[in-house]
Amino acid sequence: MPRIRPFLLSLLTVLVACGGGDRYAGMNADDVYRMALNEISEEDWGNAIRTLERFNVTFGDDPRIPEVRLLLAQASYSDGDYLTARAEYQRFRDRFVAHPSVAEAALGECRALAALAPHPQRDQTYTEDALTVCGNVTVDYAGRPEAAEAAELRRSLRHLVAEKEYLNANHYFRRRQYDPAIKYFQFVVDLYPDTEFAPRALLGIYLANIEIGYDDLAEEARTRLLREFPTSAEAQELAANGSGS
After folding, report:
1. Is the model's pLDDT at 6 over the cut of 80?
2. Which terminal CB of the chain, N or C, has fewer other CB atoms within 10 Å?
3. For the stretch 83-114, what's the b/e string if a residue is b when 16 or more beta carbons lie within 10 angstroms of its beta carbon?
4. All structural domains of the chain
């Protein structure tokens, strides 16, 4: 037994050193806050998140709570946990509506949703949410840097959704299902005329109507393509080929 006790004591020391004990024991609010900032500066996101959460739970009446909650959202985003980041940004905006950093939190939610936007061939629910949130930031904070960045993110997201609709149309076109193909091509033309997919969609409408035998509708699409997107590769293709068929 006397030989076992030193071994157990050594094992206990190792466990404590490896985190078996409370790493925040004896620390006051300033200590925990400084620890969180150090971990953030070292990009130790996992520990930073745990330290910020500890601060929030233990020192809930500290005046730095709004800043801590914003740091928690930012650390979650940097750690790649975009769902948690979005929730934390939302919580900040709901609880601290008059805080000077509310615009920063709004942009953070926009960024988190944009990061969740998936590949164009997958469901675009998060993309649609991001379009709404980023659009609101653009309007609510017009003239501020947050609005400018949100607008740029929104443009990228619109491009993503336009590509999604175009791929849907092309899917039907390749299978000779021309009516649904025209429907999706038309969505692109009507809703995303500022993207590179609009002239592609008009060309798709033209070709689909040629296949169906609706020469008048094909000519309408051709005329519109040449008029509205004269410098596009699709318009130049039609112009070079005459009929485009």
Report:
1. no
2. N
3. ebbbebbbebbeebeebeebbbbbbbbbbbbb
4. 28-96 (1.25.40), 100-163 (no CATH), 176-245 (no CATH)
